[in-house]
Amino acid sequence: MSDLELRDEQRDDFYQTVWMIARMIPKGAVCTYGQIAGYIPCPQGIDPDDYKAYRARWVGSAMAASPGDVPWQRVINSQGKISIRDGAARQQALLKAEEIFFDEWQRIDLKKFGWNGPGSEWLREHHLVVPDEPEQLSFL
DNA sequence: CGCTTGACCGGAA
DNA sequence: ATTCCGGCCAAGC
Predict the structure, then answer these.
(1) CA at A80, C1' at C13: how many angstroms apart?
(2) Whether A8 CB is under 7 Å from strand C
(3) Integer Cα distance of A137 and A122 in angstroms
(4) Which residue pairs from A46-54 have beta carbons closer than 8 angstroms and sit at least 24 positions apart in sequence?
(5) pLDDT for res A138
(6) What pLDDT, on the 0 to 100 scale, is given for residue A73?
(7) Strand C nucleotides within a 7 Å radius of protein CB atoms
(8) A14, A84, A102, A128: which one has the fewest Cβ atoms less than 10 Å from its Cβ?
(9) Are A14 and A60 in contact (CB under 8 A)?
(10) The predicted structure's pLDDT at residue A6
(11) pLDDT above 80: residue A5
(12) DSSP H/E element including A97
């Protein structure tokens, strides 16, 4: 059994998981490439630092190859903007049709429209990474 | 098979 | 808010 075959299988798993999570994003909400990536554990045999550096990009690759039932338009970059490419205008039109608001810099307010994610229970059930709770800012 | 480009991100100027 | 860089992968010529 070759290592290469294993890697292909892991990549396929990664893509399937990306699509599964993306399908959960509700209409009228968005989520970032990096956010989705953060839910997926580092595959065996991959250097964790390399994984952290590239996983968001892999999510982009997964979205480019996504099946028709995946709401790809709801996945945007960490700046709250639509990544420039052919089809970006169509993505913006789809999001506006979902009543998502763009500011004067063509940016989406992630505080307002950002999806919170699948929830820790669901993530545990699927052996995914439960993100750290946001720290309580006691001085506020 | 080698080379180039890319739906990314975080940190540093 | 802008630009550049390292990361050294994945997909498309």
Answers:
(1) 32
(2) no
(3) 26
(4) A46/A10
(5) 43
(6) 96
(7) 1-2, 6-12
(8) A84
(9) no
(10) 73
(11) no
(12) helix A88-97
Evaluate if the CB of A54 falls below 7 Å from strand C: yes
Q: What is the pLDDT of residues A9-61, one digit of tens each?
A: 999 999 999 999 999 999 999 999 999 999 999 998 888 999 999 999 999 99
Query: Which residues touch A108 (CB under 8 Å, ≥6 apart)?
Result: A30, A76, A80, A81, A95, A100, A101, A102
Give the nucleotide nearest to A91 (CA→C1').
B7
What is the pTM (predicted TM-score) of this model? 0.91
Q: Which residue is nearest to nucleotide C8 (CA to C1')?
A: A50
In the structure encoding, which two tokens stand for residue A108, read together?
């989406």
A101: tokens are 């608001």
Q: Is A114 helix (H, G, I), strand (E, B) or coil?
A: strand
User: Cβ of A11 < 7 Å from strand C?
Assistant: yes
- Asked whether strand C has any atom less than 7 Å from the CB of A47, the reply is yes
Q: Answer whether A74's CB lies under 8 Å from A28's CB.
A: no
Q: Which nucleotide's C1' is closest to A87 (Cα)?
A: B7
